[in-house]
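Let's do one together. I've listed all components of the complex below, 680 residues spread over two lines.
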Amino acid sequence: MSTRPARSKRATVHDVALEAGVSRGTVSRYVNGERYVSAAARDAIEAAIAKVGYVPNTAARNLVMQRTQAVGFIVHEPHSLFVDDPNIGSILLGANTELSQADHQMVVLIVDSDRDTDRVARYLTGGLVDGVIIVSARADDPITRVVERLQLPAAYVGHPPGAASSAAFVVIDNLGAARSITERLAATGRRRIGMIAAALDRDSGADRLAGFTAALGDSFDEALVEPVPFYSYSAGRDGMRRLLERAPDLDGVFAASDAVAAGAIEALRASGRRVPQDVGVVGFDDSAWARRTTPQLSTVRQPAAGLGAEAARLVLAQLREQEMITERRLDTEIVWRESA
Amino acid sequence: MSTRPARSKRATVHDVALEAGVSRGTVSRYVNGERYVSAAARDAIEAAIAKVGYVPNTAARNLVMQRTQAVGFIVHEPHSLFVDDPNIGSILLGANTELSQADHQMVVLIVDSDRDTDRVARYLTGGLVDGVIIVSARADDPITRVVERLQLPAAYVGHPPGAASSAAFVVIDNLGAARSITERLAATGRRRIGMIAAALDRDSGADRLAGFTAALGDSFDEALVEPVPFYSYSAGRDGMRRLLERAPDLDGVFAASDAVAAGAIEALRASGRRVPQDVGVVGFDDSAWARRTTPQLSTVRQPAAGLGAEAARLVLAQLREQEMITERRLDTEIVWRESA
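Okay, and this is what the predicted structure of the assembly comes out as:
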């Protein structure tokens, strides 16, 4: 153990100006990113900043500039998120790359409890970000209300009910894609098709169930739908076990995500059933999970990194006060492998 | 498409004071979190804030308070991170829970390119966080240099060479744990034990290889070590393939992480080898991966959420100017399942 030394006195704009041989005004213009600083002055200032150890006070600068050059990335998910859903990681990295290229700092804010919700809402009201990207928002989310009240430039990945109507949305056609892959599964000759439906409190979860229902039409049997709370491997495994108890004659399964499908395949294997010979399984996402299952998954490919990048572009466009795009829909495709 | 409406004029402290029937000083004390605001005044101010839609200007407040109540969580990892390493997610959520309970906002900053490195360094110098937690730092990381120059309260998960000597470190005994599990694997009668060694540019990766080497002593064979860049499933699968080409008679493998082990098991299966009958495999982490492989992994359990929580506590202690803890070592244990 040791005791932290007191911080040394910070260098000021004055110290930099003296060292660089330019006026304080020139240093201020440089620090604030304004134009009209000559290349020679810029070089001298950068050398002087390095030498005297000057640290611009961003809080003070933000007060003048009213811009932080930071964009929040808000993830509202339970613990399973970072552990089980590779899509969130891809969305996040897609957004980060796009913001980075526009010299904006992405700050990820995690909402994992009610306490987090309140504090993140306060953080947003504090003006510490210029705009936000929101994934996995729920219906009546307090954070969406704060974003609306502040009229903060915002883009949602997905379209939660009740989200600020002035925001932008980047979506895929969950309903249409779920309908297509269920129809494809039915076309392989399956007669008793069940669904492990996840996250029904979100638009993606509810829409995938609606697509499944629409695909089956008159042959839809409510008893073959097993709702689980999260898009996770363990939820898929447990849900499949319950579904098999109720419907041991089931011969096809649409799992609401690839992680859910991987868990379902494990439960099917444990019960002695072969995939795809006895039960055909399809997933949703085409995440890293899809190629790790044995057999590899037939699934819906969604452009996860593209969703993040597009959300970032829509927030940046709002910050530049360009025309407001209210919805952008990205394409999905069916990828047919060996699990069905 | 539509055009964003202009922001309405923001309510001020004056508006709140008028509505609440208290002085502006009282509102300021409330907003700045100071004591000596009566319960009655607090209730009136909270009602007034809600009514007039007042948003405290955090940038201005930070200027006065010199505190942001925000702690950065810096992750320096390539893309595979959020996709393949459930440990990072657990560390992150452990830190978030601890900071949340202390009313601090965790802001995650992702470093995925040189451009990110420079910008995150600028973000830190801007005073937008009070302290930082750093995971996966590399040797000579520019971010560690910035943290040292600013004397920013900091805690590292792991101990990168060259990190600020005034910082705190939360570590596990990677070398000792790797040595123990390799010895345990050797004790099952394996004679040709290889290692898929990952991330050798980090302390964790280098220490796990050192532990493996120490365990084997005279029987160590450099040709049986296959270095891969990342702790990922695909790196493990590809590394295992190369190792098998060089050493088809191998009968044991220590994989540097569970994700790496899962990839190795897939490559062994594809080559027609049975685990554990033909080749015993052990991993490291006891992450969610360990229970998803068939057979389930024998591995080293490290307390991932505990590492994050402890790092958060050490930063908070520095912020409170309590005694500085320079290193905290958390325990690991060997969990023996079916893969060896």
